[in-house]
Amino acid sequence: MAPGTRIRRLLRSPLWKTSVEKEVDGEVEFHLEMRTREYVARGMEPAAAREKALSRFGEIDRVKRTCREIARRRDRAMRITEWTTERRQDLRYALRHLIQNPGFTLIAALTLSLGIGANAAMFSVINAVLIRPLPYAEPDRVVHLLETHNGELSRHVFLSYPTFTDYRAQNRTLVELAAYEFSEATLLGTGEPELLARATVSASFFDVLGVRPACGRFFLPQEGEPGHDPVVVLGYGLWQRRFGGEAAIVGETVNLGGIAHTVVGVVDADYEDPLGRRQIYQAGPPWSNPNHEVRNEHSWRVIGRIKPGVSVAEAQADLNRIAAQLAAEYPDTSAGDGVRCVTVKERMVGDVRPAILILFAAVAFVLLIACANVANLLLSRAAGREREIAVRIALGAGRRRLLGQLLTESIALAVLGGAAGLGLARAATEVFVVLLEGDIPRAAAIRLDGSVLVFTLGVAVGTGVLFGLVPALQTTRPNVVAALREGGRGTTAGPGSRGLRSGLVVAEIALAVVLVIGAGLLIKSLWNLRRVETGVDAEGVLTLRIAPSTANHPDPEDLTALYRQLPARLATLPGVEAAGAITYLPMRGAFSCAGFARDDRPPPDPTAGEVVCTELRTVTPDYFRTMGMVLLRGRGLTRDDDARRPQVVMINEAMAQQAFPGEDPIGRRITVNGVSREIVGVVGNVPQLGLAAAPAMAIYTPHAQERSPWARRNMALVLRTAGDPLKLAPAVRTAVWDLDATIPITELRTMEGVLSDNVAEPRFRTLLLVVFATVATLLAAVGIAGVMACSVSQRRHEIGLRMALGARQQDVVGLVVGQGLKLALLGLGIGLVAAFALTRLLASLLFGVGAADPLTFATVALVLGAVATAACYLPARRAMRVDPITVLRSD
Amino acid sequence: MTRPNKALLHGTVDAIILKTLSWGPRHGYGIARWIEETTGDALRIEDGSLYPALYRLERRGWIEAEWGVSELGRKVKTYRLTERGRRQLRAETAQWATFHVAVSKILLPA
């Protein structure tokens, strides 16, 4: 007997409907009774017979238990088989239905693919950036120690080396700390000299992270001590690209700036640096520079690993304790200083999290709108399926079964749409990686992996239930089912359904309104951002970064000569109007800072928070002219401001206002880095850290007079050119290498490109939100059109009557458009109120525009009103063409 | 009459039950009685082991149960052999035959 027949027999038999207990008990009881009769027939007393029967049976309770257990498993297996058979049947029905209605299936699947695909794409971003743990051992235990001043994160969040050693020695809650400093190193040898992004780290750095090398090993404690031969660990990309990925590199030396460094190992391919991509790591103590031993020379970033069993809060309390001690011991340098303990992941992705989550919410809205559209589609088709439902009822399907069948249809449709959506998502994620790499942390890992697929499946099933449930409930309403059973006509397209469909459209419009307002606010912010005063004229400016080696330019005078000759030489190139140099380009995010003191005032008191770390920039005299910066007061720097002449300095407007309020700073003297300088000029503000930040104080020292070695070696050159800056790139390279062929050139690009990078992330998220808002609006417009079209065909009779009674075509159009506008206005109203409540969540992304900006709200309301009116156009035309005679006759 | 060794019996209970049902559907008590009568009471399945065996056989699809009417006039669970059960019975009978011949060669040499 085939398994199917067996199940059907059992289904028909009422056996499996009895409870398991009764089944077993009844059976055993019958057996006992028969045995008792047996013994009685042989002449025993009934009571004794029963006794004997029981004892012969054995441990009756144990037997019953065993049998019940087996019976339950049997019943469970049967239920599962029954369920799966039903679902298989449902699926067959569903697929057949979908194939027989290709138009409907196509439209619905397409609509759903937009919604589900967008969600899948955004989830891959969330997964890659926010959810995926960092590739460290117990990544939640790895933290940054960020310096704070008076409770707030200080501008630079670095510690000084002595402070770092104190925290390392005195803490009780951290396993280990490691210090880390950015620097650059020139890789020499075969091929072009290459400037590498280097990190100088404590020997314990990789232990704190808890990572493994791809080959070789990491640093030993003694390798980080002063006097030890230099050792390095290579980054994976550098190893592959420059050293062929050969394991033989371990033990060999590489030439960095003329000095041989031994390679001890390579990080593995999955490694993620806590602070940004580094190409090479060197073990090191502080540079042999006395300033690094000074307590208020903040140059080191610090990471640490929290002990197992200790929470971040406990570690923070421990660090606060040490901070208080240090402040008391060294009031001159460390008063008001502290550290904040932040997990590496939080620091890496904390800033982008709001934007990503907001975009995810936006695609959720789009999906809801898509669901509403498909639900409407289903509702409008319900009337046409009455016969089919009637047939199924005749075949014996109950309401529950019908519901199951209809839901299976919806879920199958949703999964179909989801599969198509995955194709969309695939394309989208590839675009994301290209656009976002470098602008958003961890973006390189965005792709459709296992979690994304599982998520998409879950969303598809959920979506199917969401849009399918209400139409299925509608179609299988008990009175409908009963009426169809008796052979009558159902009322599935009745007024109840119409109210539902109008409600769905109103909801769609409200959601679309929220999205469009969000997009509008972001557009306005972007516009404002682009119009921020950069303080420089970036048009036609070419920039590049050079790093002269200590081998070829050992003495300070060599560097002074280099940076006098090189800009002069570059300025003579055809097409170049001016050339200069600066330590860090504006808006590249890098900066150095130092404290300053006015000579005519008492020295600032660190304990009272009067020492402010001010941005320090070293420039050549022609820099300001090259960048088109405005000289506000006094004079600029000249060639005469060299080491033998009086020491001078220029400041920016922000500093003039904040440090010399109400006075003329020209002629005043300030002391920076131990050197007293006279202020000779004031220039305009140029943001260093980004367009959205407020202008900070800045000091410009002339290169020829600057003594700090790290502020005068590696600089960015800027050239003002006529025409396309990049055309001059080869000539510039030749000019530099004519002077010294070992100087590596990096970051050769236009200043406009640098500025544009600053808005890359806001531009991307604005673009994305605009795309989502547009899709949402289109879907909502389709939704309105659909509902209006359905309404028109339902009211044909009424329209025909009106026309017969004298209504003109305009009146009919007015009727339809009026109905549509009523829905639209309701949706607009709800949407505007919802937007008002929700846009405050956007506040962190906005620049120069309030979350409740009336202009944006009003514009969006008008635009969407117009869209809604346009969406009613086609249905209105259909209404116009109703022929009253035909309609009335067919009554 | 010697009582058979319990261990020997254990492995063949399933085959015996299947064979019993091959003569027609019976309820649990009926199966026990039939075995006793057919072997002249030489073989006795413990009442307490019979029912778990029956439930297991049902779970494996070799027998199936339905309601029948008992001698007492009430409804009682009745078992019948399924097609798969028939096949299983054939297999086990063949196995037993082979086993029986082999052991006989050793224990009862001609």
Structure description:
- The complex is a heterodimer of chains A (891) and B (110).
- Chain A has 891 residues and is α+β, with helices and mostly antiparallel strands.
- Chain A has 28 helices and 23 strands.
- Chain A folds into four domains: 98 residues, no CATH class; 184 residues, no CATH class; 308 residues, no CATH class; 196 residues, no CATH class.
- Helix content of chain A is 52%, strand content 15%.
- In chain A, a hairpin with a 2-residue loop joins strand 19 and strand 20.
- Chain A is globular, with a radius of gyration of 38 Å.
- Chain B is built from five helices and three strands.
- In chain B, helix 2 crosses helix 5.
- Chain B is globular, with a radius of gyration of 15 Å.
- Chains A and B meet through helix 1, helix 2 and helix 4 of A and helix 3, helix 4 and strand 2 of B.
How is this structure best summarized?
With 891 residues, chain A is an alpha+beta fold.
- Taken in chain order, the helices and strands of chain B follow as HHEHHEEH
Measured by DSSP, the beta-strand proportion of chain B falls in 5-15%
Distance between the amino and carboxyl termini of chain A: 57 Å
CATH H-tier superfamily of chain B: Winged helix-like DNA-binding domain superfamily/Winged helix DNA-binding domain
Mean pLDDT of chain A: 86
